[in-house]
Design goal:
The complex is a heterodimer. By secondary structure, chain A is α/β, with parallel strands linked by helices. Chain A folds into 2 domains: 179 residues, 3-Layer(aba) Sandwich (Rossmann fold), CATH 3.40.50; 78 residues, no CATH class. Chain A is built from 11 helices and 10 strands. In chain A, helix 4 packs across helix 6. Chain A is globular, with a radius of gyration of 19 Å. Chain B is 63% helix and 3% strand. Chain B has a two-stranded parallel ribbon. In chain B, strands 3-4 form a two-stranded antiparallel ribbon. In chain B, helix 3 packs across helix 12 and helix 12 crosses helix 13. The longest helix of chain B is centred in the C-terminal third of the chain and has 27 residues. Chain B is globular. Classes of the chains: A alpha/beta, B mainly alpha. Chains A and B meet through helix 3, helix 4, helix 5 and helix 6 of A and helix 7, helix 8, helix 9, helix 10 and helix 15 of B.
Chain lengths: 277, 390
């Protein structure tokens, strides 16, 4: 699929959403592990075509929150709706097929598959071939396979991977390239919402800046919304339209970057003295 | 014009050795006596290749360690027992039910179906059984899957053993227990006619070879498909696979069902070829035997598994008994040991497994990916989605 087509599809989706209400909304969700309240009564919403961030100290519940949005965890309490549909506690693959894709904090590529194959798996939910189609390799299945393979190469190209390493085993790629493949795999599933869990971890400032630009490009060209967990304040402040701050599982602040920068509770809990200066 | 022939040559060039080998294998029975015992052993080897290829889908592709594979052999063989003998002799007022049966079988009481129908029936029954065994293992991983499947294999084995006491519908028994269901109808194919084991084993060999080819074809097609990629993704990292849109339950059940169906095909064929179906065939050791073939050949590697199955099958049917008749017996006697190699054959298979693990853990003909995993420590996900979702 060409980028402009995706944009059209995303626009259509937004149009059907009764005047651009929230793409994703979480209402009063909590996650309790035994005695530990990892996420405590958090309200959260993302508008279509926006970039928002969740920040907070280590152990604040950011990744747990992510895992609830993508279906890996079931919220103990609360509701999550996506595109007007209740997705609370749905299976991860269902949520992916509805249009939510993610990357992982510690890269989780399929190590022994090539870069292209990894991205092809990302399109699983957009494919139809069943077991008999695969055995008989009907013309429709054949077309689908070549389309998906072609799309995978386009996506890898889009995220800036050298075409010489497309068919390399993912585990042998450099760290930066693995990050790229993971993002390509996520956007190959044609999501409306992309969740990035600390995508700049381990990147130098130059690479981080490039990724920041890329996120804006994703939003503008492909009409995606992006939800970002990030520790690099330069990235967060530069790219986010809205920031949510979690601490000990609770939402302690929400607002535009400037407001967050000046929020006393946030400075106290997270940003520390240096940022307050 | 010339470029066209060159193109054709380049496209078919890699296939030439395979085609030559296939023709050689297909012609081999012609040069042996029709009742040659080596021919009989080769037919068993072919059936075991089909089994091993089936188990390879579950264990090699999808990474689900199945120790109860004998259950599918049992169901496949029992299907033949039920539908190609006078086992249900009371059926239809002792006149029998006949669909596509040979002239001879058509006069007998009991159910007599054409072998192709039996194979289709065996596929359906074992695929269903495969999904039934799959269901309780869906939330499990690794060793725990092995334990549950092992128990399932044992349960099916016990049912087969006590099947003569087990009446399911009316007065019809489940199996004949340790007594055989025998004789089984000879395989009777449309346009080919009826095989006759008593005079000529060659048709059984070609039938076995045809089954191997079909199963190989299906294996290759599935491996290079959406489903095959999903299996490998699942094996590599379950959490990531689910997050990329791979439905875990469906994908795992599909692996169990396809793997089981191959076991069923092979079981149905073995039932007809061995001309008897009895519970002694369905022992736990058989599951390990097939697993050893897969591991010896190389987990996930289709050609490797074929080689592993042929090798171990001949070790079982020929090498051990020849060893016992030859030098092996003398050695054991000299050591004052009072057993034969054939009696401790599972010990021998175990020893072979240990040797493989130590000397060549990736198997004789390793799959590209698996080799990488073992030599470079690639592959992450040890965490289960269900652990994470708890």
């Amino acid at each position: 699929m060409r980028p402009d087509e995706t944009t059209d599809a995303a626009t259509e989706r937004d149009g059907g959403d009764a005047g651009g209400t929230d793409l994703l909304a979480a209402r009063e969700i909590s996650k309790i592990f035994g005695g530990l309240v990892a996420v405590d009564d958090v309200d959260f919403a993302i508008a279509p075509r926006s970039i928002v961030s969740i920040i907070g100290p280590n152990g604040a519940g950011k990744t747990t929150f992510f895992n609830m949005l993508t279906g890996l965890y079931k919220p103990t309490l609360g509701r999550i709706t996506f595109d007007g549909r209740d997705i609370t506690g749905q299976r991860p693959d269902r949520i992916t097929s509805l249009g939510v894709a993610r990357t992982f904090q510690n890269i989780r590529l399929f190590g022994t598959m090539s870069a292209v194959e990894n991205v092809m798996v990302g399109q699983h939910a957009r494919m139809k071939a069943g077991i008999f189609g695969a055995i008989l390799r009907t013309p429709a299945v054949r077309r689908e396979e070549s389309r998906v393979r072609e799309h995978a190469r386009e996506m890898l190209d889009y995220v800036g991977l050298q075409s010489s390493v497309f068919d390399q085993i993912a585990a042998n790629l450099s760290y930066g390239d693995q990050r790229r493949v993971e993002i390509a795999r996520a956007i190959a599933s044609e999501p409306a919402l992309l969740l990035l869990d600390e995508p700049t971890a381990g990147m130098n400032p130059n690479e981080s800046a490039r990724l920041t630009e890329f996120m804006v490009k994703l939003r503008d060209e492909r009409g995606l919304s992006i939800l970002l967990i990030e520790h690099d304040m330069k990235v967060v402040m530069g790219v986010s339209e809205q920031i949510t701050v979690l601490d000990h599982g609770q939402k302690i602040a929400e607002g535009k970057p400037q407001e967050i920068r000046e929020n006393e509770r946030v400075v106290e809990a997270y940003l520390g003295k240096a940022a307050g200066d | 014009m010339r470029s066209l022939t060159e193109m054709r040559r380049s496209r078919w060039a890699p296939m030439v050795p395979a085609i030559v080998a296939l023709i050689a294998v297909a012609l081999f029975p012609v040069f042996r006596d029709p009742l040659d015992s080596f021919l009989g052993d080769s037919i068993q080897a072919l059936a075991l290749v089909v089994m091993a290829l089936g188990l390879n889908i579950v264990v090699g592709f999808a990474g689900l360690l199945d120790l109860g594979y004998v259950a599918f052999y049992a169901f496949g063989a029992l299907t033949t027992g039920w539908w190609a003998s006078d086992f249900f002799s009371a059926v239809n007022g002792e006149k029998g039910i006949h669909v596509g049966a040979s002239e001879f079988a058509a006069q007998l009481p009991g159910i007599h179906f054409n072998f192709l129908l039996i194979v289709i029936g065996a596929i359906l029954i074992t695929a269903l059984a495969g999904m039934v065994i799959g269901l309780p293992t869906l939330r499990l991983r690794g060793d725990y899957i092995a334990i549950v499947t092992l128990a399932f294999g044992e349960i099916v084995g016990r049912f087969a053993q006590n099947g003569d006491e087990l009446t399911l519908i009316g007065d019809y028994k489940f199996s004949n227990g340790r007594q055989s269901i025998s004789p089984i109808d000879q395989i009777n194919l449309p346009f080919v006619g009826e095989f006759d084991q008593a005079t000529n084993l060659r048709p059984y060999f070609w039938m076995g070879l045809a089954l191997v080819l079909v199963v190989l074809f299906v294996n290759f097609r599935l491996r290079d498909s959406r489903l095959g990629r999903a299996w490998i993704a699942l094996r590599e990292d379950e959490v990531a696979a689910a997050s990329m849109g791979v439905p875990l339950v469906k994908t795992k059940l599909m692996a169990y069902a396809v793997g089981a169906a191959f076991g069923g095909i092979s079981g149905a064929f073995l039932g007809a070829f061995l001309n008897s179906v009895n519970a002694n065939q369905f022992q736990f050791g058989f599951s390990i035997f097939v697993l050893a073939m897969v591991i010896l050949g190389g987990l996930g590697s289709i050609w490797g598994v074929v080689i592993g199955a042929v090798l171990l099958s001949f070790v079982n049917t020929r090498f051990l008994s020849q060893l016992d008749q030859g030098i092996g017996n003398d050695v054991l006697n000299a050591l004052g040991l009072d057993f034969t190699f054939n009696e401790v054959k599972f010990g021998v298979f175990g020893f072979i497994l240990v040797l493989v693990m130590v000397l060549r853990p990736e198997g004789l003909l390793p799959e590209r990916r698996r080799k990488l995993e073992l030599t470079e420590g690639v592959g992450t996900g040890s965490e289960s989605v269900y652990e994470a979702r708890a």
